[in-house]
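Thread: Newbie trying to understand structure tokens

Hi all, I'm a second-year student working on a class project, and my supervisor (Dr. K.) asked me to get a predicted structure for one chain before our next meeting. I've only ever worked with sequences, so writing a 3D structure as a token string is new to me. If someone could post the tokens and maybe explain what I'm looking at, I'd be very grateful. Here's the chain:
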Amino acid sequence: MSRSIMLFSTTLLSLSCALSGCTDNTPALSQNAHTAPNQVPASKVFVNAQVYTVDSKQPWAQAVAIQGNKIVFVGNDDKAKSYIDDNTQVIDLKGKMLLPGFHDVHIHPLESASEVTQVTLPSYASEQEYMDILYEANLQHPGSGWLIGYGHEIATLLEMPSSPLSVLNEAIPDRPVIIMEQTSHSMWVNSKALALAGITQQSADPIGGVLGRDEQGYLNGILYDNAGNQVMELAMRSRPDASEQDYWGLIEYTMPELNKVGITSISDARTYWQRGHLQTWQRVADEDKLTLRVSLGLWAYPQMSDEKQLASLKAMFSRPTDSLLKVDQVKFYMDGILVNSTAAMHEPYNVDWLNLYGNRGLNYFTQARLEKYIKALEPVGFDFNIHGIGDRGIHEALNAVENASNGAARHRITHLEVVDPDDFSRFAKLNVIADAQVAGEFSQPSHWPENIPLIGAQRSQDLVPIKSLQNANATLTLSSDWNVSTFNPFVGISHAISRAPQNITLAQAIAAYTINGAYAMRQEQLVGSIEVGKRADFVVLDKNLFELSAEQIKQTKVVMTLLDGEVIYQAN
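---
Reply by user tm_fold:
Sure, no problem. This is what the structure looks like when written as tokens:
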């Protein structure tokens, strides 16, 4: 397989020296080495390694041999000699750790690095500071079209003395402006944006969304969840350069940086197919520039008619065996998020900010509607990636799978912040993958009390209960939700093993990032562990994770990353 970015042609000696700092001496193992009779020599052999295979039949090894893109040997250094001839690259890892490439099965790679965003705001600032930044951004990006931004936290808008709408109108009165909040679950807009979207004082809340209003009932410039999503869709589709900016963000930043931390497979958790995201990914694949295995999660638009959407989704399904790119997942939102009081809860919130019916959050998709999609799309081959944060949203998603699934699908529920303990055992029973993100500081136990004003002390305990789910035999995956959290898997692993009382073992955390992620992407027979016959997707680390503290794991560096037997990242 040829690739045009970040590939390295290395000789036996130069590659070995780059890793271990050797002199001009060829590694001793390659001297007088020979292949056994009828033994096909390997193209690369990694020796003197601490190989953690994530294979229960053979957890540890010293050496790995690959021929082309496949693993042909896993074992000790002595037996590895039989795979070496004069053309074999022998890489002496000098005791470094080798393990399978990491999977991130919930990430937003196009959105998070796209250069279509024209202004980034600080999380918190005064009204005047925001106006100064926005005024300057308007000068730097002149025109009458949409100005698109990102960065604030919702609390800073809610705490403003003035209406957020009036602040944004004063800063930029003559063109539409939309600014995505850090979680992506609300948008800050001005009056020009509201007018273009057809939103007036008389407008009703859209499905899965809320039009923010002040105490007098006037629009305040905050659009929650799908109310904001629809306006952002309008803004993005008005930008003729959006696809090109998405493409270059992916090529120049996202893929190289993911490879740099050892990530070899991802699931795009929100592929906006009406914005051209699918075409952007296909362009990268067609140009042979993919350095990741990718499964796309096509966004299910809540406001779209089911008949039209189902027909469109079915037409886009693709799972070719010979391609790094698959279009075989659908992304659904059951609910919103806790800090907006839009996560779907069994019991009401302790605050009533949005005047939602019953004050128990909202649904993008109801249980009955999700069941309809499961019945229609499972026979095509789709697996669902279901956003569920509140206990009611998670419970309803599990109900939908129980009522409608044929049992062969590999649906997963992601985020899992507040889970009803009665539902822990249902994940394993229903073969629903539990996908969690713990790399963000907000998921740490020290931050749990911040939710007490919203949902009370009892419901604020054990948020993102990965240990409880693991103990209930759920298939657990760990992912990033980048850019909500860092995509660095070592941060996620460090937090996963240290966030008592909801912590898991290091072996469990590694499995969640490797073989379990491969299972979620239907490629566990191909990658996810170091086994003979599998593809050579693996990563070399500067230290053995099993010899480090949780805090030290965060500092781990990747020495080399391989995809399909080719080096896609090598440290300087």
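A couple of things are worth pointing out once you decode it. The first helix runs from residue 12 to 20. The radius of gyration is 25 Å. Feel free to ask follow-ups in this thread.
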